[in-house]
Amino acid sequence: MKRSSGIRLCVTVAVGALSLALITGCSDGGSDKAESNTGSSTGDSARDSSKNTAKALSVAELKKRIITQGDVTGYKVGAVSGSPARAGIKAEEKCKPLLYPMSGLAPTVASAETNRMATAEKKPSAAATALEDMSDAEMDDALTASMSIDVTIVTLSSYDGDGAQKAVKAVSDAVADCASGFTAGSGGDEQKFSKVVAEKGPGTGDESVAFAANGEMDDTDGKSAVVHVDVVRHGNNVASYYTMNLGRMIADKAYTVPAAVVTAQSAKLK
Questions:
Q1: Distance (Å, rounded) from C-alpha 199 to C-alpha 107?
Q2: Are the beta carbons of 104 and 35 closer than 8 angstroms?
Q3: CB 45 within 8 A of CB 163
Q4: pTM of the full predicted structure?
Q5: Mean of the pLDDT values across residues 36-61?
Q6: Residue 1: which of 146, 127, 139 has the closest Cα?
Q7: Does residue 4 contact residue 140 with C-beta atoms inside 8 Å?
Q8: In percent, how much of the chain has pLDDT > 90?
Q9: What is the DSSP track for 11-23?
Q10: Would you state the pLDDT for residue 15?
């Protein structure tokens, strides 16, 4: 039996295409140990410090506010493994605020940040047909169904002063500035994104921005892989949601950042 187009696409996505964005999403979510990064706020906010004196939360405080196992019905919540170092992400500077949330990092350098991975629990299906008895079309359908699972990386970050507002603006500006696509790299790998499209935000928090990024893939009959990101500000804290669904990518079907995850995280920031 010849290898099906769906299997070829799956293998390409998993080991080659979207290496910067998707490998992080495929990492193990079983642990409950959160990744965290710290740093200073950008220098631009210093001049406005007299107008906005909000103080950032600590990493420990953020870990109390980020979703954990049991907070989202129908999802397994655990650690993000393998987030790249911020300095190791290569792209035009104007486009980096798009890449950081796709790598489990805050959109801009924050005073504190942490992350979690929420993976939709797969519902039991009817008894599977033996592989040797499947046609190529049936194998494609079975593969697509088995991988049609929303995986969302939630990154929670906190800023001093008006850093959170500037972080959201940086993402909004990047969506416009990088709309025609860009090339990104991490760890020696390179990935081309053909376009970035603004989407409707989740409507929570004080302000939000959302976008879809189309990643180019080789040996997939011209198909692209689409991932989705929502960035929401709650006061001086920012919640970023990066979602991928390999099965939906294979079938070229639409999907979004799951509302259940956004709702659960928003509730912990009130």
A1: 17
A2: yes
A3: yes
A4: 0.80
A5: 59
A6: 139
A7: yes
A8: 51
A9: HHHHHTTTHHHHH
A10: 35
